[in-house]
């Protein structure tokens, strides 16, 4: 499975949205250099409040650009970095990947997929009504989360728009993504 990086973003502060950049550097075992969510232990404020010693399974947040088109059909304007992602991709089904998938990004960087982003009410603070577009229940009552995936950095490196994203699936049996 192949895709392409369309945008990269980071923020040194705990803002909802992140600024886009010409490149970001992934640091092995930490996350995005200069990003507020980088670290070995959890950095998301709600998780820190519960247990600051938890491992950081949310070092790098990826979103598929196709989501922006989907929410635009419902009247929302979302651009890269707006939902707090570090890497925006196109052409790869991020939500369909199993847990443990390795994403080779550009020449050096590799991230391991840890799970689904669990969207929160801050999304409605960004744009009213957007939360119901990125998390809802399907016809069988199952929760569907579409706000991207989370990962940890296995091998560091520079990531830029235009870089190829190549997915390497883990050995079977595959475990579906769960919220992290």
TrEMBL record:
PROSITE patterns recorded for this chain?
MOSC
A molecular-function term among this protein's GO annotations? molybdenum ion binding
Residue ranges annotated for the MOSC domain, each copy included: 19-168
The record ties this protein, via Pfam families, to: MOSC
Which PANTHER family would you find in this protein's record? METAL-SULFUR CLUSTER BIOSYNTHESIS PROTEINS YUAD-RELATED (PTHR36930), MOSC DOMAIN-CONTAINING PROTEIN (PTHR36930:SF1)
Name of the molecule in the record: MOSC domain-containing protein
- Gene source species: Phytoactinopolyspora alkaliphila
């Amino acid at each position: 499975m192949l895709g392409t990086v369309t945008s990269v973003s980071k923020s040194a502060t705990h803002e909802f949205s992140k600024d886009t950049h010409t490149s970001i550097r992934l640091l092995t075992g930490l996350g995005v250099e200069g990003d507020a969510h980088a670290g070995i232990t959890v950095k998301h404020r709600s998780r820190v409040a519960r247990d600051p010693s938890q491992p950081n399974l949310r070092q790098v947040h990826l979103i598929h650009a196709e989501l922006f088109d989907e929410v635009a059909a419902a009247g929302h304007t979302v651009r890269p970095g707006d939902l707090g992602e570090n890497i925006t991709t196109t052409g790869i089904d991020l939500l369909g990947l199993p847990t443990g998938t390795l994403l080779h990004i550009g020449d050096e960087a590799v991230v391991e997929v840890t799970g689904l982003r669990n969207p929160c009410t801050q999304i409605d603070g960004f744009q009213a009504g957007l939360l119901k577009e990125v998390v809802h229940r399907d016809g069988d009552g199952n929760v569907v989360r579409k706000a991207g995936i989370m990962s940890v950095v296995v091998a560091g490196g520079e990531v830029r728009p235009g870089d190829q994203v190549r997915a390497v699936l883990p050995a079977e049996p595959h475990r579906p993504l769960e919220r992290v």
